[in-house]
Amino acid sequence: MNRLSQRIIVLSALGSLLSADFVAAAEPSRPNIVFIITDDQGYGDLGCHGNPVIKTPHLDTLAAESSQLADYHVAPTCSPTRAALLTGHWTNRTGVWHTVNGRSMLRENEVTLARMLTDAGYATGHFGKWHLGDNFPYRPEDRGFTEVYRHGGGGVGQTPDLWNNAYFDGHYFHNGKVVPAEGFCTDVFFDQAHRFIRQQAATRRSFFAYITTNAPHGPLHAPQKYLDMYADQPPAIAAFFGMITNIDDNVGATRRLLRELDIEQNTLFIFTTDNGTATGASIFNAGMRGAKGSEYDGGHRVPLIAHWPAAGWNRKHVNDTLCHAVDVAPTLLEITGASKPDAVEFDGISIRRLLDPTADLRDWPRDRMLVTDSQRVRDPIKWKQTAVMSGRWRLVNGRELYDIQADPGQRSNVLDGHPDQAARMRAFYDAWWAELEPTFAETTEIHLGHPEHPVVSLTGHDWIQEALPPWNQQHIRRAYGYGAAPAGPAKDRKAPLAATDSSPSVHRGHWAVRVLTPGEYEISLRRWPVEADQPITAPLPPGDDVPGASKAFRAHPGLAIPSVRATLRIDDRDLETKPVEADDRDVTFTATLTAGSYQLAPVFVDAEGNEVGAYYAIVTKMITVAP
To answer: Residue 98 and residue 402: Cα distance in Å, rounded?
Structure first.
């Protein structure tokens, strides 16, 4: 072989190596993930979707240079959506089909996306709204997140949240400890997420930042400068859109941070929302019927925007294939290379190809069927506010069929003209329901007596009962559920407050609890939470209001309940009764409990026999000291 031939071979081999190196460099390594999900913002609450009023320049820019899903669906309310996207399972399978009533806690056997990413070596941070359980083992820190900064319940000022929290200058839970904060809640949550992102970038560790705002969920509060941007709109719209524009500014700040840290290229940046609009439909709803809570598309079709420059997802690409929140977890696992436990079977599928502008979709299943429903009841009801979806078709409540291509506003029921299509969709739903129905009886129970969690704080938010429980602090202040309390304006009520006859009112709710360790327990009953530190029978003055279109929960007076005694009720048996003295802040009972499941329903009682559930109860496992 002559020298020229040898040189050609060497150069050829070198070229092959360089080519291989180039391919390896072009293939993105596992990305960071910034996942932003807002609360009660609908598909039409974005400028890029045609809203003529709202100001969302940063999100509009993001959409213009990202992949988008135009037919992406969630649950019509918040907790169920979050359960689906974090587990890849139908909401009803996870035990989360409601937002209150003990039906918003993610079953203990569910494995979350955060757990799987943590097991794969990711740093995982949660910032803002969780709403899948406020006690062990349901909190985000129990479900795989390594860094947690959150409020309680489903929103700032809801019953499980820290007392008197409003949207400004609140107190939050940081890795289980209560910490003060300054500023508007959305800004605080993004600031904490930015701190987490900076920390991970400094150590070059892959991360999952799950940023979950409680805004623009009501009550409708926003910093004044954002209210002023919409001064020509009705107050509710000004506050709702103001909160969204504030989110938009935080989205812009987060994208600038990623560029500043030089990690934007290999960061998958996702923006989505948890259900249809709660307030914005009066301005613009993208031609859809329905809003939050609705089985029509306006209740559950929401935006999903994904930007990932290293994978080529940095130009506008819109895919209109039907998909669902159950697809998020399997998609992110495929993208990151993380694995799921062998026992986990997803209800969703990876939709990475739908987001890839270059993917071949000729073999994509166009007849795939999906289900979403609004089960805001104690126990699921078949066909309650249900949509079965397949391509262009929507079968609603089993009785209405809509062709979305011809009728996106779902005005013309074409069931009679397409009986075979309706029959196929009904058959799919019947099989879906039959598979899930046996799981409905698996009540999610709050654990008592875990060695690492000997003290458990219970709130009325999680009472299991037919009526809605007192899910926010305004309800607590207004003595929600107490039969002798003034009913107040109808708009402030979610259920009747007064007895319907002259008989004393009876508390119908209970906490479902599971005692893990047998022994002696202290059960301390409270009208007001520990932070309030007020007597059971005392009224409270209203707290300070904050800027916005509605009154802060804390800005309502706290009504006195003239309780004279307290009763410890477990499994419909009154075990013990004690008097309530004038200065008592709590009434404490001691009970010996064996391991197992219980219905805990302690009450306060007035002189006429009217009962009201103890809004707060602190259960403590007593330490047994060896003789």
So the answer is: 26
